[in-house]
Every structure is written in structure tokens, then in C-alpha cells.
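Many introductory courses stop at the sequence. We go one step further.
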Amino acid sequence: MRLPSRPRFELLASRFAVLAFALAVVAGGAGCEDKHVGRPCDLGISSDGGTGSVATITSPALQCPSRICLLPGAEKDPKGTGSLCTAGCESNSDCEDGELGDKTDPNDHRCKNGFVCMWPTTVGNFCCQRFCVCRDFVAEPMGGFQPPEVCKSPSSGGPNPPTCVNVH
């Protein structure tokens, strides 16, 4: 009967350590989901090119991992930026990894100035939900966006009863 030699044990131990490290890296990377905020998407309807004051939200938008395509109501000239994939957010940091367009390319319809977490609509199925919105469309106030009055719960000074189905 032959017992395994010490070098063979060390080889197995080092292989196990490498495998465990590789699994940890893969598992850690899987937790960071790329929502492709800022990817161009098709609303499935004709739009006014983002020059109106009404936000248009389409779901399901199959080209978006979140399945939500947004063309915000424009508070300022978006200079060719079109409808983009969006995702829910809690703060601006949730929107920091959005895809940006080339500012020098007039044919690039992606967002040029980054994204902000805000409430793009106060009506419809997506009322009072926060989404990453391209700054090309909105004028961000000092101190950031505050919840619209209709998005506040009755206990926080909002309408009673709430006018948005997503306010509780």
C-alpha cells in the first residue's frame, strides 16, 4: 500500500484554492447586474422626438434588461437624444453606470450628460416610481429632485386619498 506523497497533497490543495478563488470571483461578478441604462430603445409608437412635456414609457421593451423604455418630457432641448432604456433607482448613484453617447457625433442618440434618479411621471402605471432619467431632458434643481406632491403619502402631506396607485 502506497500513501500519497506530501507534494501531491500540496498540488491538490493549491488546485482547490485556485478553484475556490475563481468561483468567488464569478459569484461576486454575478451580483452586479448591468441594467444597460441609456441603451437606445424603441417605444413602439411614434413620438414627438422628446420635445413635448409628456413622458412616454413603454413596457415591455425587449431591448432593455429592465423591460422599460423611457422618453422623458423635455424641460430643455435634448439635442437629438432619443428614447432610452431605464431602470428603477433610489439615488443618483444607482444611475452612474448609464451608457453615454459621443457628444461630438450628431448621429449618436444616447444620453450625453449622464443620468439622474427622479420621478418622470405622476400618472399611469408608472406614476410616482423613480427611474434613471437622462440629464439631456431635465433641468436638475439645486439640492436635487424632490418627490412631487402627488407622490407623497397622505401621512407625509400628499393627497388623501392618494391619486397614484403606487403611493401607499
